[in-house]
């Protein structure tokens, strides 16, 4: 192991294997240079990588976020990019200004790379930094043997009893932690979570841990079983003629928060249809395309419609790590054993893009070599 961004003996090869996105449906396994940690960064030997809807969307429809065709204004990246923004690994080298005692530590990363200096960052809203960038989206990511990442965007998880695999769940858990914070929900409240997917499942765990009575809604019976395992007090089958009436029967005359996680027009319409006056609707799911929204109902019923974006690494990441640790070794119902990197297209990206995800959260091993 070494300091100042120089590769350790374990990382002394000039190149490494990586999964590089060149364009729509064009993911290639190539040899790329081993990166070096810049000031304030870690060089991490990757253990596990999570695949999310954003990855699938970039592969299926991109480039949308990734700077494959035009230079990113913050990172300067232009061209093919190593994917992977949800990841964990062991620190093998550090850049200038980073305490070397972190060497050898198992860390989970949120992949965020805000500037740290603007008013938003100073005000505790680094997720809306005007110069925000993310590892694996705007600069090379973790679907490789090694990745560099800001030290401030990593948390030591080994000390919490989290293993190499569960550690990759900290990033999606931090998204759920942030959504819960945005809502203002409190212990004893009732909250609807519509969509028990890659964020919704973690959101149920977050809310239940806070003493919130969670009502989970999903089309699939197996997802509802997972919701109950994660702490949902009540589950409701979505997409039926009775869904709205059953949901309305789960509260008296007030429901503080409705988390809409599907991002679908039908899901948003249901939220607006069933919530009582004064409810906060937190729009967690990202719509794949614009659709009409009846804002008159938001106005006359004094609803609050809140967006939630990524996470605040300074607060959400450490809380997320503790929540993952609370179920250490018991996340298999959400995230089965990681697949080989070479299977990522057939066993993750393509089925996710087609709306048939193989698991709530798919994990991938880094490419070998």
Automatic annotation (TrEMBL):
Pfam families: ADH_N (PF08240), ADH_zinc_N (PF00107). It comes from the Bacteria. InterPro entries: ADH-like_C, ADH-like_N, ADH_Zn_CS, GroES-like_sf, NAD(P)-bd_dom_sf, Zn_alcohol_dh. Residues 39-157 form the Alcohol dehydrogenase-like N-terminal domain. The keyword Oxidoreductase applies. Its cofactor is Zn(2+). Residues 198-324 form the Alcohol dehydrogenase-like C-terminal domain. Keywords: Metal-binding, Oxidoreductase, Zinc. The keyword Manganese does not apply. Belongs to the zinc-containing alcohol dehydrogenase family. PANTHER family: L-THREONINE 3-DEHYDROGENASE (PTHR43401:SF2). This is Alcohol dehydrogenase catalytic domain-containing protein.
